[in-house]
Amino acid sequence: MNALRLEELSAATIVAVNRLGLKPGQEQFVSPVSYSAAAAVTPAHSAWQRVVLDGEQVVGFIHGNFDPEAQQEEFRAALWRINVDAEAQGKGVGTFAVNALIDEARRRGVERLTVLWERGEDGPEAFFLAMGFAPVGETPYGEVIGAITL
pLDDT tens digits for 34-93? Predict the structure, then answer.
């Protein structure tokens, strides 16, 4: 991998992000990135969407959300989604992206960042635990609520 870098999600990069491949079995844990882009029609301060590039190639996407007024604490500062291309998984792309989101959260004075995930084989749980997120609850739908103190 070349030096990884971030860019804001844009019309120029969303097509490449939507083409990110998954490893077999991961599709049940991920919805199309276009859903995330559509969800960003929230207050301008809320959505933090970045594309991860390796050189000029899009290899990942991360969507963080910052809404200190959210009624549910787990949505005040959250990692909403992360996608890393199948060929780039295990090469530090996800770690780079999550660390960038953590840096942004700290810059905003956030003390706790959350993430939701589904348990299951081929799911993201091991990655989030390795990043330092710890289970702190469960949604009514059975998703794990994970949090990391910054």
Answer: 344 444 444 555 899 999 999 999 999 999 999 999 998 889 999 998 999 999 999 999
- Count of H-run helices and E-run strands, the chain: 4, 7
Distance CA 52, CA 89 (A): 12
Nearest Cα to Cα of residue 35 among 7, 9, 4, 70:
9
| Residue 5 structure tokens | 């870098």
CATH number of 4-110: 3.40.630.30
Those residues whose C-beta lies under 8 Å from the C-beta of residue 42, and which sit 6 or more positions away, are 65, 67
Q: Which of 95, 138, 132 is nearest to 116 (CA)?
A: 138
